[in-house]
Fold this protein.
Amino acid sequence: MNAKMMAPLAALALLAACSSNPETPAATTSGTGASASTAGPVPGSQEDLVANVGDRVFFAFDSSQLSGEARSTLDRQSGWLGRYPQVSVQVAGNTDDRGTEEYNLALGQRRANAARDYLVARGVNSSRISTISYGKDRPTALGDNEEAWAQNRNAITSVR
C-alpha cells in the first residue's frame, strides 16, 4: 500500500520540480530546430517588414502613380531597408483581372518600377531591388467587384 502511494507522489514531486525551474526552457521546437518565441518577428525578415512597415502599396484603376499613402509606406520601407543593408527585396507589380494579359503585365511592371524608383530615390541601392510583374495572375483578393479589384491593384515588396 505504501509503495502504491509513493509512485504518484514521486511523479507529482518530479513535475513540481520541473515546473518551478525558471532556467529550464519549455519544449518549444517545431521540428525544424527553431524555437517558438513571443518576442516578435526576426529583425530584417519578411515578417518584420509586414508587421512593422507594410509590404504593399495600392494604385488607382489603370494607374501606376504613387498616392500619398503609397509614398508613406515606401518611406517606411526605405528606412527599414536602411536599417538592414544586407537585405535585398523584390517588388512585384499586380493588377486586377480586367484587361488583356499583355496590358496587365505591362501595367504591373510600371507599378513595380514606380515603387522601385521611389525606393532608389530615397537612397536604397538599386542593386538590392529586383522587379517583376504578375499582371492579373496572382490576385490577393477574390471577387469581381471594386473592393476585390482595389486590393489586387498593388505592388508587393518581398524579402529575398
Observations:
- The domain at 46-159 is CATH 3.30.1330.60 (60s Ribosomal Protein L30; Chain: A;).
- The chain has a mean pLDDT of 86.
- The chain has one domain: 46-159.
- The radius of gyration is 25 Å.
